[in-house]
Amino acid sequence: MAHSQSPPALLWQIQNARNHAEQIEFLRQLKDGVIGDVRAKEKWVNHGILQFLVHLLQQKPTAQSPSGLGSKEAYAPISQTTDLPDDDRVRLLALQLIASFAKGGPLFLTPLNAVEAVPVILTYICPHKNPAQLVLTSLRALSDMTEAASLSSRTSIEDTAALAKALFVPRYIESLCAILDAESASGIVQEQKCLVANLISRLCKEPRYQDMLADAGVLDALATLLASFVVARGEVLPFTLDTLEREGLAAVIPQPAPRGLSLALILEAISVLIADSRFRTGLLLCSPAIMAVLTSSEIGERNSQIYRTWELLKKSGLIHGRLVDRSALDYLLPAVPVTTQRFFLSQHHPLFPSTGRSLETPPKHGRATTRFTTEDREWPVGGGDTEEPESPLIPWLIHLMRSGTNDHEKVMAASVLASLFKGGFMDPEREFSLSVLVVPVLCRLLKYYEKERGKSLDAIFVDSETATAWVILERTPAVLARLIADSVFLQQVTRDSGALKLACKLLKDSYEPTAIPSPPRPWTPNPEERQDTGDDKFWTCQLGPPGQVPLCAHKIRMRESSLKLITSLATFKEEFRKEIVEQDILPSVAESLSETPQKPTPPKEKPKTEENGTVSMHPAGHSPYGHNPTSVLIAACHAVRTLARSVSNLRTVLDDNCVAMPIFKLLKHVDIDVKIAACSVICNLLTESSPMRDPLIKAGVIGVLCLYARSDNAGLRLNALWALKHLVHMTDRDTKKKCLEELGPGWLIQLICDDTEDEALHAQIMGERRPLTDADEDEVMDTDDGYAEATDDVWQWQAIHRKGPGFDSTRMRVADGMLRALREREFDEVRKAREADLAIQEQGLDFIRNLIAIPQQPAQAEMIDYIFSELGQDRLFDILASKLRVKILRPFARRQPSSSGTPDGGAGSGASGRNVSIDSRVLYPQSKIIVAVIYFLTHIAAGVPRHRQLVIAQEELLKLLAGHFNNKDVDVRRSLCHLLKNLVWCDGTEDRRGRDLRVFELEKLGFLQKLEGLERNDAELDVRERAKEAASSIKGEACEGPQVPHGRVDY
């Protein structure tokens, strides 16, 4: 047996080997010496081995195309794994060594990044340029580096975001797609596919990366792999093959999934790619392979006995629903007993917005998502009245959850179902099936793995079985939170299943201190060997921060997941918020608002804790309670926001646990998503009933909010204005005036008057369409991190494009049209800009209204005059009138029907990939803006008689209002009744003549007849009653007593 050599001697032999055979032998010795030995790895890093390994990998053959996949036939088949030439064996050993060093954990990320290992590794993932063994080893190295990055400390610059940025570029995305499309059944290829799916699920968190992968065909490749599992399970309907032959889909039915391919990883990758996007979810459902193996077929035509049984169950009340919308796979599920339709009336948030709800980056519902989104009433959550039948993928996923034996597969199937449910691709009747067949399964998994979790809480390193159990426990609350976020009924089922108390317990358990938060360094008799030089040029030979142990990382992920589930459960029902508070979790929630949490302490014990000192720290500087990343901070903000919807919580537990100041600190966080989340919480903490309003004002919240109201980010600007609206409501006049002065009257006028986002988009487009200079062309050619710079803006469905021109059928053409419509709606920049402008203008008008909302009459009149003097009386009325007119943006530009606005507020676009247009557009008055204008006038009319007379003098404005008595929005009709009642109010005998003049003007404009029409014919009882009161006031009934303003008060 050869004696082990010292690192310097062996390194010299590797570098000076006479041929590849010698180098292979020496590299094998190095490999045998470092695998599993962290101390040996540290020594080799100190001697600069990583830089030499990267140098070996950079010596690639020259007879290959420089980029892309071109000349596929010139290279070895993807399944070839034997008889590697010596130069490839050298590179294989170098990749294996780098993967071994990456397995050492976060310690080795700093030197690996210093030698730029990731870009070199990525050059070996193309399956058409490299042997399968090299591709597999490079993917293993990337996976190991991803795992190490997930354990890196908060001071480390190596994280998953840097890896995602390096991996998700066009040429490497093509390589990932080629790996997933490979038809070989070899074990090496299946492991490659599993590693690719794992990388996607762990790194692809940003919407831009998800869109890039979907457009490149990765999502379709994953859907094909999912379809192969349907084939392997024998669940393809045999009597549909003739139909598939006629439609040209029989050729896309994949082979059965080979052994070694993980269904759980495929489902997890799919769930990550389709998250919070109806377009990407539609791509999954319209994938040719999914449509081929899971067809919508009425089983009643083939099996009359089952059909008659279904009809008998329906007549007996055990089944409710339309058989024509059910596929054959529904018969794999048990009949769900339904006796009433109460569950169809689930209070989804688009129809029942919660008090204090603001637009934010969500998550997107736990999604936390990086995009500014707006409420969309045209996409009903949980199903809609569409002509297209529900996809058979939905019952198949439910069946998989019930019949599968792999718990990881069950959780990931539920995750895909959550996206389908939230995207509106399910029938309304399916909600009850989810409550009976899906939610209880998730709750049982949560209970089981919570009990099993206690067996390995003291482990520094974990085995694969424990790691899988931890993954299931981390994912299940988050999946359940997404599934129930918009459904009161599903939230009730989840709470009845015991998940509420369990989520609270998991949150408190996540703050159990970790005895060893960071992995210990191996003992060495010569500690002086670890002395760092402190020079940047030696970073390639130095270890980085130690990171954290897997248990600590697991607790932090559990913290985030449990906070998401608590947020979903507290969204609507007050009784759920009360039950959550009773679990004594507010100290844990409060600590989750800090990046460096301490031991959660009840309010009564906090003074004693402060006297005893701060939390003890690990010698390496790690807190035993971990470090909260931005995802935990955002989840905690969402939890506080939903709990703050309760006035009782605002006045008691939230104030006692001092959440105001941590939230205020997060307003100044460097991350824009954290700022937006904190700003959404401030909206609820600044209401009239909140005892935290005064401390926040003293801390300077007014200045911060006014600064953010000028932000370039539409979401931050909206939430800041929303918070200011709450702050000025029912507060003293000095505070109201200070808010207006800080915000600036000119800027406020610009917010409510101009279409800021739309004009900014127009300026951006015009700038992009300027003639390119030579420097611009060079910059475009050098860009390699996205598809935005592509010269061809026309989107092509890769699933059809890759099959060739002969792949066509009626179903595929229909699917292509549906996908184009979904894509146009989701990526329409003009529509997004318009919705942002409308939301900001609405809050700006409400802010002005709340400035004059003062109960005391003299003070209110004074404030109205102050507003007129600061903003300009005539200018303000002109702006209000403009909100009630049809508006044409850029009237002298060309007009196209697809780019014109609609009376419902939509804005179409062309068929381009970016969906932007500079055409002239017609913008119709929006109901929310109309209501805001009317209530502002209502508050002015609640002032002194001269203010009411001032409103009456605006003849053009009143004529515009008269045209909205037939508005389909009930709030518009109701608010008009309030306004007219205030306008004819009489402030005593001295105001009778003025009242008679106002009544005369209103009758002349036809308001009395319109009110009588509402009183007789309106479908809403409340509107009829309000119209009756207003008509009676106009007709001359006595109006004595104190004046009370009629209008809405927003909290």
UniProtKB/TrEMBL annotation:
UniProt KW keywords: Cytoplasm, Nucleus, Repeat
Subcellular location: Cytoplasm; Nucleus
SUPFAM superfamilies referenced in this protein's UniProt entry, alphabetically: ARM repeat
Record's keyword annotation contains Nucleus: yes
Annotated region (Disordered), positions in chain: 513-540, 588-622
InterPro entries: ARM-like (IPR011989), ARM-type_fold (IPR016024), Armadillo (IPR000225), ARMC8/Vid28 (IPR038739)
Predominant location category: cytoplasm
UniProt feature, compositional bias: Basic and acidic residues: 527-538, 602-611
SMART domains in the record: ARM
Biased composition annotated in UniProt, kind: Pro residues: 516-525
UniProt protein name: Armadillo-type protein
Organism of origin: Neurospora intermedia
